[in-house]
Amino acid sequence: MNVNNSSLGILQEKELELLELFHHICISNNLRYYLIGGTLLGAVRHKGFIPWDDDVDVAMPRKDYEKFLKVSDKELNSQFGIISIYNNNKCRQNLTKLCNFSLAVIDHSTVKKQKQYVWIDIIPLDGLPDNKIAKCIHMTRLFYSRMWTQLTQFNYAVDIKRKRKFPMNIAIVIGKILFGNRKMNYRKALLKFEKLLKQYSFDDCNIVTNYVASIGFRETFPKAWLGKGKKILFEGKQFVGPECEKSVLQNIYGNYMELPPIEERIGHNLEIIYEDIINV
C-alpha cells in the first residue's frame, strides 16, 4: 500500500514543519546537524522532497545528538516529542524520532503493522578508526551487531516489501522462518549496538559513519566532507547540509542526478489513520 498523492502531501507538509522546528532548536542551542540521505538528495536534485518520498533524515555528530536529547524537552510543547531508546523502552531503532503527536500513521512495510506518529529521523554520526585493521575489525563488529538487532525483532525491523537482490531475499526468507515468531530481547541488542557505535568519537576521527541507516556503510566518508556545514535550500527554506554535498551523494547513490526507474519510485507504505490537529 503506497501513500496516495493527497496523503503524501499531508505527510510532507507535517515533516517540513518538524524539520523547521528541529532546525530552530539546533540553531538556538548551537548544535551541529546536516541534511543526509534522501533528504539531502531531494534538496540537491529537486530543491525539496523527492516527489514520491515520505521521509526526512538529518544527522548529528554524537556529542550534539546527545545534547539535543537533553534540551528537547524544554524546547517542545505537548504537540511534539522525541522517541529514542533513552526515553522509550518500546523504541526499536538506534536513532531518535522527532514526532508530531497530532497525526498518526500505520506503517505497512513490515510484517507487524505499526501505529506511529508522523516523524523525522535524527541520526547520530560516529567515528571509525584510521588504522585499516582496526577499522575492518570495528566495521565487522558493527555489521553483526546491527544484524542481530534486526533478527531479534524481525517482524518489526525488516521491510519485507523493499526491492533487494536475490541472495538477500533468500536470507530474509530464512530469517523469517528462524526468527519471525521468536520472542527475543531486542532492547538488549539495541543497547549493545549503541555502545559499539559510540566506541569511536566523531570529533576524534577522520572517517565518520551513519551506520544506523538501512544502506550499510555507504554513508561512511571523510569527516571533512561534512565540514562546518553550509546553507542549502529545501522547499524554499534554508537548512544545513554538508560542505561537500556532491561527494556525499555520489558516495551513497553514484549518479545521484539520474532518476530511478518508475517502478522504484516508492515511499515507505504509510497510511494516515487519523488527523487531529492540536491548536497550540
UniProtKB/TrEMBL annotation:
BP terms from Gene Ontology: glycoprotein metabolic process
LicD/FKTN/FKRP nucleotidyltransferase domain ranges (all copies): 26-254
InterPro entries: LicD/FKTN/FKRP_NTP_transf (IPR007074), LPS_cholinephosphotransferase (IPR052942)
PANTHER family: LIPOPOLYSACCHARIDE CHOLINEPHOSPHOTRANSFERASE LICD (PTHR43404:SF2)
Descriptive protein name: LicD family protein
Organism: Clostridium symbiosum
